[in-house]
Amino acid sequence: MVTTVAFDADQTLLDTRRAIEAATLELCAQVARQYPGSPALEVADLHADAVAAWEAMPERDVRTVRSIALARSLGRVGLGHAHGELSEYYFAARQRLTHPYADAVSALSQLGERFVLGYATNGNSRAELCGLAGRFAFELYAHERGLAPKPAPEFYAAVLAAAGVVTGPEQVVYVGDSWSHDVVPARAAGLRTVWVNRGGSTVPDPGVADAVVVSLADLPAAVRSLAA
Ligand SMILES: [Mg+2]
Questions:
Q1: Which GO molecular function, any one, fits this protein according to its record (predicted)?
Q2: Which of the residues 141, 151, 205, 216 could staple to 107 if both were Cys, CB 3.0 to 4.6 A apart?
């Protein structure tokens, strides 16, 4: 019996990519306003520094990685001394500009009538700051209180513990957009899985996900069919 539906956050419920692009532009504008004498902060450099930081430290938490990348970008334009203040500006903008996808809120409302809902992310998008306050019975953030990030089995064990599973892991459905971080390890931990395939990519291995949806509008029906 399915009792619980737990969600990945970024690019599943939240359009984080768009928020990062918008927050990056806001940071560049803020630097131009606040430090008119310094060289312009370039979007391309911010992007390149973020990619390089991720490649150098994929195991670190996203805030740390972004902070290190911002330090590098600000150093390029002689603003390393303003890193603390400007990184706080960026992180505040990033949270404020992160919104649920248009199809997310309705799906959560429908599913919330019948199932316990959970939020379990590797990222730092706080549900309450991103338009999803009060939606979830539990929220898990990797790297907080020692929680290992996905795809670690410990992450999914924590999801099951937070869900209070009684009969077994199959009573939890995990919904996410990442095949390698959401679908494959959740299934390995015994959960049911739904792959959110917004881009309509080819399903890597048809036997692994219990359901595939291209929109969260299709999610309530997909979960109901798993729960039947
Ligand atoms: Mg994701």
A1: hydrolase activity
A2: 216
Question: For residue 79, how far is its CA from the centre of ligand 1 (angstroms)?
Answer: 32
**CB within 8 Å of 227: residues ≥ 6 apart:** 1, 2, 114, 115
Instruction: Flag whether the pTM goes above 0.90.
Output: yes
Alpha helix (H) residue ranges in the chain? 16-34, 43-56, 62-76, 83-96, 104-112, 153-163, 184-188, 219-227
Tokens of 200: 């309509």
Contact 95, 20 (CB under 8 A): no
- Per-residue pLDDT tens for 95-125? 999 999 999 999 999 999 999 999 999 999 9
> 136 CA to middle of ligand 1, Å?
17
The CA 42 to ligand 1 mean position distance, Å, reads 26
User: Ligand 1 centroid to 39 CA: how many Å?
Assistant: 34
Kindly give the distance from the C-alpha atom of residue 198 to the centroid of ligand 1, in angstroms, as a whole number: 11
Angle at the Cα of 209 (from 203 to 212), degrees rounded to 5? 65
- Ligand 1 centre distance from Cα of residue 88 (Å): 23
Q: How far is CA 149 from CA 79, 104, 145, in A?
A: 32, 23, 11
Question: Ligand 1: distance of its center to the CA of 68 in Å?
Answer: 22
Residue 178's beta-bridge partner residues? none
Geometric angle at alpha carbon 120, from 114 and 123, rounded to 5°: 145
